[in-house]
């Protein structure tokens, strides 16, 4: 696994885009072609967040998985429909878990041929470390089961543009554990 800052991740967009397509064009996501095509712009926006960083996993010189995110801001953002939906749906006690010092996990993707072998779990564990973190995923995605098995807690559900999503959080892990 290799760690990269936002600029380093943006340089790999050509290798990451097919993995994104293969992960998110299929059910339950079933993202339309225009959203798949928008991945390079979304990657650029995400990886331009202050402190954005991530990891890539390679097998035989080919990128087969990636994760990225950034430190959460001190207040819930309202920059787009996703941010507003999270803010509006989050119960107050959970909203407090979605801001600094938490880490936002924006994307986790593993090429389908490499799923089911622990790679997603390893990427997630290395990205988050002992920090508190949160993420959103489709409630029916295989990743939702991965997060629950890894000790993340499903906190609330919401929708963005008729797409169901669920927020998962993980508390910071005390030192020495």
Automatic annotation (TrEMBL):
InterPro entries: Acyl_CoA_acyltransferase, GNAT_dom. GO terms for molecular function: acyltransferase activity, transferring groups other than amino-acyl groups. Residues 1-174 form the N-acetyltransferase domain. This is N-acetyltransferase domain-containing protein. The lineage of its organism: Bacteria, Bacillati, Actinomycetota, Actinomycetes, Micromonosporales.
């Amino acid at each position: 696994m290799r760690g990269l800052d936002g600029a380093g991740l943006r340089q790999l967009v050509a290798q990451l885009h097919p993995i994104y397509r293969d992960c998110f064009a299929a059910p339950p996501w079933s993202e339309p072609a225009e959203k798949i095509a928008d991945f390079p712009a979304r990657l650029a926006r995400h990886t331009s967040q202050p402190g954005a960083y991530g990891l890539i996993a390679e097998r035989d010189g080919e990128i087969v998985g990636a994760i990225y995110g950034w430190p959460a801001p001190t207040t819930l953002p309202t920059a787009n429909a996703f941010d507003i939906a999270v803010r509006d749906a989050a119960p107050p006690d959970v909203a407090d878990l979605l801001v600094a010092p938490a880490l936002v996990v924006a994307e986790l993707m593993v090429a389908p041929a490499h799923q089911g072998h622990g790679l997603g779990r390893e990427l997630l564990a290395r990205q988050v470390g002992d920090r508190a973190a949160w993420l959103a995923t489709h409630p029916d995605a295989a990743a939702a089961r991965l997060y629950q098995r890894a000790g993340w807690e499903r906190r609330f559900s919401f929708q963005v543009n008729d797409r169901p999503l669920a927020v998962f959080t993980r508390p910071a892990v005390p030192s020495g554990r």
